[in-house]
């Protein structure tokens, strides 16, 4: 058998597999639709999205994957399959920090897939209000960056919002220098979000030291301005480059190659255990010696790993602070439940923000 015949055989096998995959995808979609109809008939609510169920499926996809596609790549494919199947009934409306082309939009699509409807909003507090009002099923908000730390606007909203955390997204952040101009020497003004300017400070000092740096509300807004003005550039994503018709003068200009932003998915539903979860909570007490030690001790006594600790002014009393804490485990796990019961007795203020699956992809 010559090479041409072998190639024809391989292509015929690919065509047969494509037909089989297409048939199985439609069969899966029909079963997903039947599942949604059963839930609605049983009065289990119109929203069929179950964060813990989807996390379990994606973990199984990664665990059983033999290659040559990577486990993460296979999980992304299944993410889109689940998104398309869910959209057959009621497409989810997801609010995110806009405008179109932001990293928050990218995080929303990474978590929910591209078959959802999205609504860009200009401020974090608007995302919370949109979800609270029920005009969006979920919202996606940035909460921390591996280089620049906490997003305080998000933390402050949890003090006053009844919403819960339903999931998390981790997104590697790659910043690109975008412009209508063709050379760095033609750029005299630079637009970017304040955190982005900080994340690219060393590169900018080395390559655009004399350029005016102007902070704006989002990198997508920066790209929009760069698309309308001559002599300026923006730091933004590749998606923003496509949307606003810009060209990349430099790519991956972030100072830290592992630069990652963590986003939270907010909603009104409680999430049951998935088997690999986090729990977020707020704690506070009257300012005194040893307060933080006493608040954290129940976690250590119950062998609970704390993954994050931030403090913010409580806004109730001068020099009183609230601690934002993430721990490993679900609030229904025995050790976590025991620690939370102790904290409820010790802390003057305790608010559970939710338990949710750890980021899978």
TrEMBL record:
Gene Ontology CC, one term: cytoplasm
Q: Where is this site: Essential for prephenate dehydratase activity?
A: 261
Coiled-coil region(s): 7-41
| Reactions mediated catalytically | prephenate + H(+) = 3-phenylpyruvate + CO2 + H2O; chorismate = prephenate
Protein's cellular compartments: Cytoplasm
Q: Which UniProt keywords apply?
A: Amino-acid biosynthesis, Aromatic amino acid biosynthesis, Coiled coil, Cytoplasm, Isomerase, Lyase, Multifunctional enzyme, Phenylalanine biosynthesis
List the pathway annotation.
Amino-acid biosynthesis; L-phenylalanine biosynthesis; phenylpyruvate from prephenate: step 1/1; Metabolic intermediate biosynthesis; prephenate biosynthesis; prephenate from chorismate: step 1/1
The Chorismate mutase domain covers 1-93
> For this UniProt entry, what is the primary localization, expressed as one broad class?
cytoplasm
Q: Per UniProt, what is one GO molecular function of this protein?
A: prephenate dehydratase activity
Task: Determine the domain of life of the protein's source.
Answer: Bacteria
Q: Which residues form the ACT domain?
A: 280-357
Recorded hits in Pfam families, A to Z, give: ACT, CM_2, PDT
Q: Which InterPro entries match?
A: ACT-like_dom_sf, ACT_dom, Chor_mutase/pphenate_deHydtase, Chorismate_II_sf, CM_dom_sf, CM_II_prokaryot, G/b/e-P-prot_chorismate_mutase, Preph_deHydtase
Report the record's Gene Ontology biological process terms.
chorismate metabolic process; L-phenylalanine biosynthetic process
Entry EC no(s): 4.2.1.51, 5.4.99.5
| Prephenate dehydratase domain location | 93-268
Q: Which PANTHER family match?
A: PREPHENATE DEHYDRATASE P PROTEIN, PREPHENATE DEHYDRATASE-RELATED
Which NCBIfam families does the entry link to? CM_P2, PRK11898.1
Function according to Swiss-Prot or TrEMBL: Catalyzes the Claisen rearrangement of chorismate to prephenate and the decarboxylation/dehydration of prephenate to phenylpyruvate.
- Name the chain's protein: Bifunctional chorismate mutase/prephenate dehydratase
**Its encoding gene is what?**
pheA
């Amino acid at each position: 058998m010559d090479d041409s015949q072998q190639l024809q055989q391989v292509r015929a096998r690919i065509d047969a597999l494509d037909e089989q995959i297409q048939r199985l995808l439609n069969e899966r979609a029909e079963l997903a639709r039947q599942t949604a109809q059963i839930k609605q008939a049983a009065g289990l609510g119109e929203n069929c999205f179950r964060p813990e169920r989807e996390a379990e499926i994606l973990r199984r996809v990664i665990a059983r994957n033999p290659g040559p596609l990577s486990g993460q790549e296979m999980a992304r494919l299944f993410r889109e399959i689940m998104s398309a199947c869910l959209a057959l009934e009621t497409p989810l409306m997801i609010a995110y920090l806009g405008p179109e082309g932001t990293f928050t939009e990218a995080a929303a699509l990474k978590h929910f897939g591209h078959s959802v409807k999205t609504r860009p909003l200009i401020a974090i507090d608007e995302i919370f209000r949109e979800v609270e009002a029920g005009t969006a099923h979920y919202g996606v908000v940035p909460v921390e960056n591996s280089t620049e730390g906490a997003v305080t606007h998000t933390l402050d909203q949890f003090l006053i919002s009844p919403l819960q955390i339903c999931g998390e997204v981790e997104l590697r952040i790659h910043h690109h220098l975008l412009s209508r101009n063709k050379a760095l020497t033609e750029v005299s003004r630079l637009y970017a979000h304040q955190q982005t300017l900080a994340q690219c400070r060393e590169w900018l000092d080395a390559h655009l030291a004399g350029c005016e740096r102007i902070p704006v509300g989002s990198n997508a807004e920066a790209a929009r301005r760069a698309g309308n003005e001559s002599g300026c550039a923006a730091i933004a994503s590749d998606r923003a480059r496509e949307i606003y018709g810009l060209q990349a003068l430099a790519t991956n200009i972030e100072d830290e190659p592992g630069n990652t932003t963590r986003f939270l998915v907010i909603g009104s539903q409680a999430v049951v255990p998935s088997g690999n979860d986090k729990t977020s909570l707020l704690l506070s007490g009257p300012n005194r010696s040893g307060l933080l030690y006493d608040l954290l001790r129940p976690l250590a006594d119950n062998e609970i790993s704390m993954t994050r600790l931030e403090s913010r002014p409580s806004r109730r009393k001068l020099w009183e602070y609230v601690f934002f804490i993430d721990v490993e485990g679900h609030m229904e796990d025995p050790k976590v439940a025991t620690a939370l019961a102790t904290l409820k007795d010790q802390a003057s203020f305790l608010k559970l923000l939710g338990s949710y699956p750890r980021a899978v992809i």
